[in-house]
Give the backbone structure.
Amino acid sequence: MISLNINGRDYSVQAPDDMPLLWVLRDLLNLKGTKFGCGIAQCGACTVHVDGRPVRSCMLPAANVGPREVTTIEAIGQKDSGRRIQQAWLELEVVQCGYCQSGQIMAAAALIERNPAPDDAEIDAAMAGNICRCATYARIRAAIKSASRK
Amino acid sequence: MVAFASSARARAATSEVTSPSAIGGFVRISPEGGISLVMPSVEMGQGIYTAEAALLAEELDVRLDQIVAFAAPPDGSLYAQPLFKAQMTGGSTSIRGFWTPLRQAGAAARSMLVAAAAQAWGVHPNECSTKDGTILHSSTGRVLKYEEVAESAATLPMPEDPKLKSREEFRIIGKSQRRIDTSAKVNGSAVYGIDVMVDGMKTAAVAISPVDGGRLKSVDDNRARKIPGVIDVLRIDDAVAVVGEHYWVARAGVEALDIDWELGPNTKLTTASIRAEAVKAADEGTPIKALERGDVETSFKNATKRVTAEYELPFLAHATMEPINTTVHVRPNGCDIWVGTQTPVVAQKHAARITGLPVDKVALHNHLIGGGFGRRLQADTIEQAVHFAKQVPYPLKIIWTREQDIRHDRFRPCYLDRIAAGLDEQGRPLVWTHRTISGTVRRYFAEDGWPEGKLDKDAVDGAWDSPYAFPAIRVDWVRHDPPVKLNWWRGVGPTHNVFVVESFLDELAHTAGQDPIAYRRALLDANPRAMAVLDKVADAAGWHKSLEPRSGRGVSLHQNFGSYAALVIEVAVAISGEISLNKIVAAVDCGIQINPDTIRAQIEGGVLFGLSAALFNGITFDEGRVEQGNFNDYRQLRINETPPIEVHLLESNESPGGLGEVGTVSAAPALGNAIFAATGVRIRRLPIDRSLLSKRENA
Amino acid sequence: MKRILVAVCALGVVIAIVAACFFFWPASIEAVQATQAQPTGYALVAKGEYLTKAADCVACHTAPGGQPFAGGRAFRLPFGTIYSSNITPDGETGIGRWSDAEFVRAVHRGIGKNGEDLYPAFPYTAYALLSTDDVLAIRAYLSTVRPVSLRNTDNTLVFPFNQRYSLRAWKLLFVPTRPWEPSTAHDAPWNRGAYLAEALAHCGECHTPRNLMFATKRGRKYAGAVVDGWKAYNITSDRESGIGAWSDADIAQYLSSGHAPARGSAGGGMGEAIDLSLRHLSSEDIAALTRYLRSIPAQPSELAVRIDHHPATLNRATAWSPGPDRNESIGFQIFASACASCHGWDGAGQQTEHAEFLGSPAVNDPSGVNLVRVVLEGVKIGSHRGDNLMPSFAAAYSDAEIAAVSNYVIGHFGGKQGKVTAADVRAARN
């Protein structure tokens, strides 16, 4: 049994030792907002927060999470940073196909959480691990700036 | 059917929930479920739900925040794209095809609702007006909601030729609208095909023959079946599926299989062998003529200079963010498919064939697509899933790995182009010839393949209809089908041809010692829309402003999908050969604009999509196997490589043009031309080999 | 005078005959038998499986992407290429028809089924120390693996290296003639560790420098060497360049997982040895190995890397931010794109402990020799918590880009000026 704290709730799941958090979230807990993109931590679609840090859940065994708090896209709007990012995303119409955007929003929320007013270079450094095939990058940059001004 | 709420309160409104009144094919109204609009095109990021809803809502007189949109079921008679005469989303056709039909559908539904209200009130419909989903009888002040008269309206005859609003009357069209599909996409509640949950569903991972055309010889599944949570091991001709309680255990099962493949006829295939065959076809093949105008041979004789070049483009994978997945439930009396597809009718037909069920017993529930780019125009992956699912009683979800998604993609063709021009003493082109050697994408879409000797226009699109007036021109195509399965890819024919045409035109300008924009303008006298976007982009990009050494600007111009686009890219090339994108400026005339902000978004994303491929991507083969597999070796452009992008939209009264692919087509030639301006190295082969751009003495 | 001439001639003939006999006399073969202590049945196969892992047979006898033990892995040497052989029990192409005696002779003396001398890429200089019981147990296990029909690939060595008989002289000099004998000067764990290191794991094959005759230098045991372009670091007790400063726990953790805090992570051949072999050893054996390694006399090493455990560049870096040490360089940008997700910016390893940079010799070495290879080839080390995986970046990034990102990593995480050039990367690709 693996014990997890996700979005403020405690869960116990029966899962193999090597099962990544991504698949525990998606297939065992039905939290489908976190997406499978590459499986090798190269695209960022699976980004969640573990104790506030953005991590790639596709390469994080759930058994390694321990007592740390996991936050997913489903609950990030309950945090001020997440709410501001989501709002800016809608206001600037960042989203196209949307598949990567859970990960983008998680990475962006973590960024403004620790750096309330990032400049372009700081945004790029923090967001460069997240691929968007629709290439919504210019709007992501603008939306993070807009959210950080609020 | 899955629906998308117009606000964050994700309503599960589907046609099944409330059995609403159907007012024509596109409007469903029920007292509880409100107003639902049926989307004939599938949403894969291009913003089509919002644009198509805008066309309907404009004439129906409802606000976009009053409606929910849901995917049309497969029904070729109701939802065929007029330009394809098939229910299919692709080729930047949605708005071009549905511009009039959807407005007519909205107007017809509105007039039926009005007629029903007038009947109820016993007044003449002309005395009634509509606003925001209500009908008003102005003289008495009586008001009815659409929901209240929908049932009776649905029984009325549909007007043949409803009056449409004039452009001045538009309240939605032409104004940037908040997209209706995105609020669910920022909080994780949007449901893509991969997210489907069905009662009793099991999940499978697969192993596929590593060489296309290979067959399963034998599989030892003893170890896999011992893994707790593994339920079944299923076999088909060229693949094995391990079914598990969840995806991860299924994948562990696949890794525990011992499989012997009969690798088939393609084990010797390499990129070099494919190229050699293409060169042979270029030398010996019979060209199929697409266009010949003027006297080509005489014009070459009269020319003072002949310029020739050979261009090459690679196979490309789609690499959508959402990996391939399909959920299928096959029962003795029916079949359900949950998937995101660009061709629902084709998928349904294949499923009927494979299961032996009548087509009307196959229900396809179309979903949001996490990036299409053409990949989901083909149903090969759905066919595979049905083959597996018909072996088991439960609903089965199949998910491919990223590596399978790339290696078993159906690829954008590789191309070899031979192009030539004869110039007069001022350097102007007297004659232009362009020969493409490529496979036939259309043979994967036509029922009976593609007959020899017949032109596949896709191979010459963008070449035979370039914006320029050449006194003499010949465009032809040598068909050479490589043993690699092909598919359309964002930008289709023009992505390839415009790269060749616009790069070569740049070569001619430099040969003539002329400015590339001035050189193009001289060929555009008869093409004011093309001239206008070119002038706009030159002005906005500061075309003549000076730049640092090893920096340069490049331009491209094209007219495809009913739109006109000019693009300027500014680059700097490091001594080491690395390319920095400094600035991108686009000017687009797409006729009447539906949702201007989405148009900008499509151009921004489309250009970067094209640049990503031009800079980094080419699918290569060795021993019949695709050599790329994931984003570590099939690299994608990232935010820190993205420069500022400006998009200028030109006002127009022309019919709306397509947009999803316009930016992608513009990208590679503008980049190649910019690199030439910066370094003097001409890019004739993609992806760009950056080692050619390094300065030797420092390398 | 004449008698002297005759004597000289006679002596010459005798020497020639002796030499001919030495080089060309058919190799002898001795009957083999296990001792009373040898288990039987399943226990024997289980013992053999463990020893096969400890000796890491699968690493060399499997081609990339190929079937386990079916051979075909290429070893490119300056004088040609040697291919490992199929050791599955397939009768035609594997070792299914070998007798136990032939198998033991091959492992102990480097002699093939038909008496031919085998090249010492097959580390029989170490395996000669194995007990006959252990070799027979390995044989018993190999008889149970899946037979694969795959014909051995011919070696492509140039003259004179293709003359196998010449190996007999080399063997006479460098191959031990008797199995390992425990030292009475040490206790049982030390002896077990020595047996593991010297006979099974053959650590010295990579970590001991070689002489002009390509044999390991006896006086320089474990002092570090360059193997296949990788630096196989000093693992003697030297505090500066070796593992003298490592705790027992560090060594044990590194051997059993491929990583120890602030000591770096294994890659290349060591990564493979941990993935396929060492991580499967019992904790007692890991402790024994640790004990033995600790006892190796300190040696200096020309491969020494000065490790900066607290580079100033990391002073204000966090897991998520490079701090002030950021720039617009290509290396920085690539690190942000492809690397930072897992490694983070503060050296502590964002995604997994294997992604830690602090204390890593690879990122503290200005030449970037190992670092470049890791970037090009990636790493995969399994664990019960799943694979610790870094993909290969060779295909998507240019020589100049890989040089740039390597130099950024050396600068930011090692606090040193990296000296990697595009030409270095080009050379490392081959």
Q: What stands out?
A: The mean pLDDT of chain C is 94. The domain at 312-429 of chain C is CATH 1.10.760.10 (Cytochrome Bc1 Complex; Chain D, domain 2). The interface with chain A takes residues 318-322, 326, 328, 332-333, 336-338, 340-342, 350-352, 383-387, 389, 391 of chain C (CB under 8 Å).
